[in-house]
Amino acid sequence: MESAVSTPAFANSPDTLGEVDECRLPATLETEIRAIYERSPLYPQRFPLHREPLQWACYREIPVLTKQEIVQRGHTAFFADYREIERGFAQKKFEYEHTSGTTSGPMTVVMEDGWWNAQTRRAYLAHPVLAQYVDRPYRKCVLAPVGCSSNLCPYEDHPFPHRYFDGTVYLNLSSDPFAFPEGEWERIARELQAVQPEVIEGEPVYLSLLARALKKRHVVVPSVKTVILTYGKASLQHSRRIAEAFPGAAQVDLYGSTEAGYLFVGDAFRDNLRVIDANCFIELVPWRENDPEAFQIYVTTRDRVAMPLLRYHTGDIVRRTSAGYRILGREKDLHTRTDGAVVSAFEIDQVMPADFQCWHWSLVQVSEQRWELQYVADTVAPDGFAEKIAAVLGDGARVTLFRRKFIQPAASGKFALLKPLAK
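The structure assignment produced for this chain is given below.
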């Protein structure tokens, strides 16, 4: 019999799992696991399940699924007869997306028709600010990374009216460079004024740069009541700049991925992120011995037909707080000092001067002790700023500041706020 100490911990609410037995899995989790085994031949091939009630010992033996394994096996491994899926594409019963994530090659994700909208709706219902928009018409504008796949973000080089889908306007065009020229910001500002959206959703860096463009043009959009930060990791600096452009608007952090869907939702920078229980089970795996509140996460999706994920290692690190959770970021984007302390974007934000209007930044490690802070701002960073960052990094770090016109993102269109050397 396993002890209570060895029973896996989950970030879900107690009501979702029910009473957790020291030996047996909760019925809700076991039901989902068996449904995943029935839907996808990948899992029985990797680790067969017995018919007896599942014990935690058996659960732990189910191999962790990684992005690298999905890329290597190919998405077709999830299906017994991929010809049926291809017919489903033609009949609009399935759709596919491509995502790069942390893998070296693109990952193809197959979704049943309506899954993305359904899990988005559940994510909205999980937060009081977003719940008010469920099942009623409202206007929304989206500023997604330019590398976002075109089915989820259906923008093309079409005139403005042709990018209006069910009340949502996709602001950026597929041909946009990463650094928007002034003409594009002019167009985006005009479209915002024309749509007068209640909600703006976007990648935090893009939204911060949008705030800069609106400030430069003295454009206000008083209709905006809610800003959704998604697609990437936000800095408090982005949040502050966005708040200046849309004063009084609530900022909601909606965190997830193309392949797993939306996982956490909460108020931006309030450390109160909660699992979207109707979308997933999230297992908490201890990450550092000296940091008992930091965890890797393994995701098991719920009610997913095409490509369900079981014990999926996202690469994200979360910290448990008194109010919920804080997403620290991708493990590869976190810096660990020799004393064991973890440095994330949160720690860098804490030493940013409150009166310094920084639109975007990226802290890059170029050697063992040398770092470069690239930043986008209308003024030069204040004296002593580099020394403050160096103190956070510790270990005799030296920081050089570089003011940039723009910072180039990854090929996916996303940005890494911290770029430590690969270990």
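Interim note for the steering committee: Residues 115-274 form a domain with the Rossmann fold fold (CATH 3.40.50.980). Confidence is low (pLDDT under 50) at residues 1-5.
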